[in-house]
Amino acid sequence: MIRAACGINGLFITLEGGEGAGKSTQSKALAAALSGQGREVVSTREPGSTPLGDRLREILLGIDSELDPLAEAMLFAAARAELVSTVIKPALDLGDFVICDRYSDSTVAYQGYARGVDLMSIGQLNQIATGGLVSDLAVLLDLPVAEGLRRSGDSDRFKSEDAAFHERVRAGYLALAEHDAERWLVVDATQPPETVTATILERVETLL
Ligand code: TYD
Known about the structure:
The chain is of the alpha/beta class. It is about 55% helix and about 15% strand.
């Protein structure tokens, strides 16, 4: 396993959670706060943030038929491989901070726990896609499924899955966080956004 903090000041932070948890809001707020401290910050989201990733995002979120769960996991992994090699790794090598809105833990929670692809295969896939690059800090923005779906609506293939699917996603994330409390920070995402940001920044400080 390769921890990202290989540059002098670089740090790899991933934001995870179910639908409507506020990841993109937190990503922006964290980037603003860290840039304000004079850090170079690269913000990415998955799937996306590369030309290939953007194309795969259209397929993965937009297609109106079911996909085989393993094929789906492999497409997310392909987008991730492209993102790691062309954006994340180069930025970390320069000592930049990287904030990624979703990363390999999303595939564990969604394709593993929620869709039922065996977790060993997901682990192997993530290992191949990332070359073993794991985030220094994974933030779980946790909130009740009903609240998340109320906030996010049912505008894509994942958001329109039933509540049981989203409960499995949430339970999967909580299991991941429980098994690696050192890397994970679980934040109650029903709190005001500024409170959530402050809690994350407090934890980031301890990693510097
Ligand atoms: P997201 O960007 O969070 O959508 P939005 O910002 O519109 O809420 O993520 C896209 C969807 O893709 C989300 O429903 C979760 C899903 N997803 C997976 O199922 N597996 C993965 O590995 C990733 C990265 C995302």
